[in-house]
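Translate structure to sequence.
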């Protein structure tokens, strides 16, 4: 029997049409109304100031369905008109206005880029006057959805959540609910692909979702929410796991002795194939990290006892790094057993979306490969780091 499992991530797309009223487009807005003759010198000065001004506009937050913008820098303006285009040099159409400078564009697609401009406006005696158009502020597609998430409870009062890595994420935010369709509240973040929640109650069932987060050019990007994973918190006895993997296999205990505690030639061949696959994908090669080899070999031996991203002692897989005093910014794990050649295990990992995402991730620069063999069965571990 063969089985593999991971910690990694990937993508889902929202396609919600943005509906807006074009009560003013960028062309007719530029002219404004001059329905009355200016008689006050003060009014004339304000109008001239508005017309000669250029507002600033910046994007601050991008989620799967929204962009939050901040317009400003025009003295005495009543507010700002916001325009949007599908490309930097495209046609900018009016989508709404704000009186305080903040504006949130809703109903967007996670997979699309959007570009925005703004004009300040001032109303004097019923007539509206406009500034020059701002420079464009753009946002790119947001982070993708993780391809896999699981939750389990190995000790009373704790829940361990693991997921496949999200490309481009600096951190992953974790959210929890007591109802599958309820409100999910933020409970913490992780720079790895697992999270331990110590604020749960034994015997209760919880639901978890995650999404990637990153800051790019001053814009905070929040990725697409994952599917939910549920877990009933352990009170006593064995581990509770949900959802059940589709191909669950439990290693059969053996009375035989360990054939070896590591196989460097096996690991070297795995590394060779990893870098061949990365080269095909246009990604730089990984280098072996001596710091990662020892913890990888320990995890290879541990998955013989418990084939899971949770270690036999009930802690998350990532705790093995701390155990060996390894400090990383981002890390991921692939595990497998029953594939007794480097080619076989790499073929299995490359045909799994989440494992493949770890292997090809641009976030990782280093790898540790652990190999453990017992009575002809090979247990294989990959540890990735930035």
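Result:
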């Amino acid at each position: 029997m063969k089985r593999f499992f991971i910690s990694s991530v990937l993508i889902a797309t929202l396609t919600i049409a943005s509906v807006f009223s074009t009560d003013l487009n960028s062309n007719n807005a530029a002219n404004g109304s001059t329905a009355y003759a200016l008689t006050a010198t003060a009014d004339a000065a304000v109008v001239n100031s508005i017309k000669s001004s250029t507002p600033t506009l910046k994007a601050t937050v991008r989620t799967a369905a929204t962009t939050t913008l901040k317009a400003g820098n025009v003295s005495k303006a009543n507010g700002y008109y916001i325009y949007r285009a599908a490309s930097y040099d495209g046609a900018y159409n009016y989508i709404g206005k704000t009186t305080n400078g903040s504006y949130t564009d809703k109903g967007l697609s996670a997979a699309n880029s959007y570009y925005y401009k703004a004009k300040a406006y001032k109303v004097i005696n019923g007539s509206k006057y406009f500034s020059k158009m701002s420079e464009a502020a753009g946002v790119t597609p947001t982070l993708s959805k993780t391809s896999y998430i699981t939750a389990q409870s190995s000790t009373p009062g704790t829940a361990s959540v693991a997921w496949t890595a999200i490309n481009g994420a600096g951190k992953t935010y974790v959210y929890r609910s007591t109802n599958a369709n309820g409100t999910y509240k933020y409970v913490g973040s992780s720079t790895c692909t697992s999270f331990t929640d110590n604020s749960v109650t034994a015997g209760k069932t919880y639901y978890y979702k995650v999404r990637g987060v990153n800051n790019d050019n001053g814009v905070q990007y929040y990725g697409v929410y994952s599917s939910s994973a549920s877990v009933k918190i352990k009170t006593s006895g064995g581990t509770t796991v949900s959802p059940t993997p589709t191909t669950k296999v439990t290693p059969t205990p053996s009375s035989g002795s360990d054939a070896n505690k590591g196989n460097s030639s096996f690991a070297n061949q795995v590394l060779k194939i990893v870098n061949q696959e990365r080269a095909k994908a246009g990604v730089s090669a990984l280098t072996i990290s001596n710091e990662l080899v020892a913890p990888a070999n320990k995890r290879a031996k541990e998955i013989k006892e418990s084939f899971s991203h949770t270690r036999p002692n009930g802690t998350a897989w990532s705790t093995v790094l701390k155990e060996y005093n390894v400090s990383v910014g981002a890390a991921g794990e692939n595990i497998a057993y029953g594939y007794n050649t480097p080619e076989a295990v790499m073929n299995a990992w490359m045909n799994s979306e989440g494992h493949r995402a770890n292997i090809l991730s641009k976030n990782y620069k280093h790898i540790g490969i652990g190999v453990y063999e017992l009575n002809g069965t090979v247990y294989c571990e990959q540890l990735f780091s930035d």
